[in-house]
Amino acid sequence: MWARVAEFMLGCWLLCSPFIFPEEHRGAVSALVDFGLGGLVMTFALLSYWRPTRYAHVGTLLLSLAIILLARIMLAPDIPPAGQNFMMIGLLLLMFSIVPNKSFDAPEAWHRWLSEMNGERPTI
Amino acid sequence: MNRPAKVERPDRMTEHAPVAPWNYNPSAWSQRVPVCLLAFAATLIASHLAAFQWGLISFVWDPLFGDQSEMVIGSDIAKKMDRWVGVPDAALGAIAYLGDAIFGLAGSTRRWYERPWIVVLFGIDVIPLGIVSVMLVLLQTFVLGHWCFLCLVTAAISLALVYLAYDEVYTSLLYLWKVWKASGSISVTWKALCGYPSEVAEKVALQMLSLPERKES
Fold first, then answer.
1. What is the model's pTM?
2. Which of chain A's ends, N or C, has fewer CB atoms near its CB within 10 Å?
């Protein structure tokens, strides 16, 4: 779950961003956007810990694509520092959100398959 | 489900078994940790260059070529790339190197068949990055006529990463190719790529694993 921890920390960074990038470095970006995105990223990361919503990090994947594209398209040609911050955080989130939960273990499908084939009760 | 006869299956005992055509496991930590460490070092170097391009620092460390580094990463070509991409090219490089480290870390020591998609993504990140680094070095030499020590170091790291990572990428692609040949089905191959097991996928993985002899209990 280390990737979810990294996503949560990046969500915290987004929440802090309005205080790091002053008004003149924000262009037309409202601080509410940072708060909203940061909150969503943290929520998705936390939801991924709960088994019924374990794929919530896919939401972060989609959100990161939206962050990168919207910052690149809507804030061009001179992207302000806050916009570049969005692009960098979006790229980082894109990479982390691809990493599965419990990535050091075998995937559940392989666990289940091997258990069934060996006549054991699946452990997951 | 029809249960096939009890066969030797991959488990914890076979975690470090060599994988054909190599005499080692290309997904073992001993193979992947050096890749992650090198990629992380390159991330730090690229971040230093990005900090200069962002104007956060006023100098670039260069023990060999003096201020030529600043001419290279502050060149018109670099500024054009910055405007085109939206962020400085060194920052993009730092992200790509960090991606190498992240995709190098993700997955178990049997990820070459359990999660081939991660290995393929890892390969997509590592191999084009090596090519881009070499192109940038050629660009700075023949177009700008200046040298950048840290850019050369990152280019060397990129090539080292390609060398260190290609065996695992090759193994995963070979596994997928064998699954495709054995099944003749796009669906089975796609599922194998996505990390879903099947009888064919397991059979191919077992064929590629050099399982140790086991003592009967």
1. 0.87
2. C
Report the interhelical angle of A57-74 vs A81-98 (nearest 10°).
150
**A117 vs B contacts (CB less than 8 Å):** 3-4, 9, 202
Structure tokens at A16: 């802090």
Sign, CA torsion A26/A29/A35/A39: negative
Residue in the structure block whose two tokens are 């390159």: B42
- d(CA A70, CA B59) in angstroms, rounded, equals 32
Q: Which H or E element spans position A99?
A: none
Distance from CA of A36 to the nearest CA of B (A): 23
Q: Which residues pair with B19 in a beta bridge?
A: B209
- A98 touching B, CB under 8 A? yes
Which tokens in the block code for residue B216?
């009967």
| ipTM score of complex | 0.86
Nearest to B90 by CA among B163, B154, B160: B154
Terminal CA-to-CA distance of chain A, rounded, Å?
Answer: 16
Residues near A76 by Cβ (< 8 Å), separated by ≥ 6? B86
Q: What 3-state DSSP class applies to A23?
A: helix
Q: Which among B102, B120, B129, B198 is the top mutation candidate for probing chain A, defined by the most A β-carbons within 10 Å of its own β-carbon? A: B102
Token pair of B116 as six digits: 């081939």
Q: Residue-wise pLDDT tens for chain B (217 aa)?
A: 444 444 555 555 566 788 888 888 999 999 999 999 999 999 999 999 999 999 999 888 989 888 888 888 888 888 888 888 888 989 999 999 999 999 999 988 899 999 999 999 999 999 887 888 788 778 877 788 888 899 889 999 999 999 999 999 999 999 999 999 999 889 999 999 998 988 899 889 888 887 655 444 4
Question: Do B3 and A92 count as a contact with CB atoms less than 8 A apart?
Answer: no
